[in-house]
Amino acid sequence: MTRFSKRMLICLLAVLCSGAWAQEEETEHSNALFRYKNDRGHLVVDQSIPPAAAARGYEIITDTGRVLKEVPPAPKGEDAVRYAEQLRREAELAEWDARLKRRFSSVKDIESAKKRALTELRGNLSILQANLSGVSAQLEDQQRRAGIMERNGTEVSEAVQTNIHQLEAELVEIRKQIRAREQEIDQRAARYDRDIERFREIKS
Fold this sequence. Notes:
Elements: H1 3-25, E1 33-37, E2 43-46, H2 51-56, E3 58-61, E4 67-71, H3 78-103, H4 107-151, H5 158-203
Antiparallel strand pairs: 1-2, 1-3, 3-4
Helix pairs in contact: 1-4, 1-5, 4-5
């Protein structure tokens, strides 16, 4: 295994570990979906429901397929759609509330979970930033070597050219992962803040 593939493996492992941990720590309610039969009798899963399907009855499910609510045939027309949207939102909130109550007993618990989650993500970000610094230094070294060869009137060796191309590609990928991790940190913090606000509401 080359030094480049080892370094990329470290980046990949860091990202995979963070993703798995993030999935385990996920606390926000999942979006509820409609499952209904269309005019041809085919089963459809969607975020919205047409009036005709709402009138025939439908299910409200989680994004993993678990049924939250079975809704019998409702009034036709726009009233049916408004009623369906109201039920979907109520199902989402009920699912969110249940998950919060199962996981936390106080706002302090959520704040502690938030702190652990952000600490983990920031640690992963630090690893990526360290990798970025290391790769940048190696790229500068290879570019310096190429410059020396050119000044001496010799052709830049294929090995140096290959190294430069690989290092440049690594920098692009690492920067992309850093941006994604920074965005994930912001999103996770906002998600926990919403959990805290909702938990206060249901406890009051």
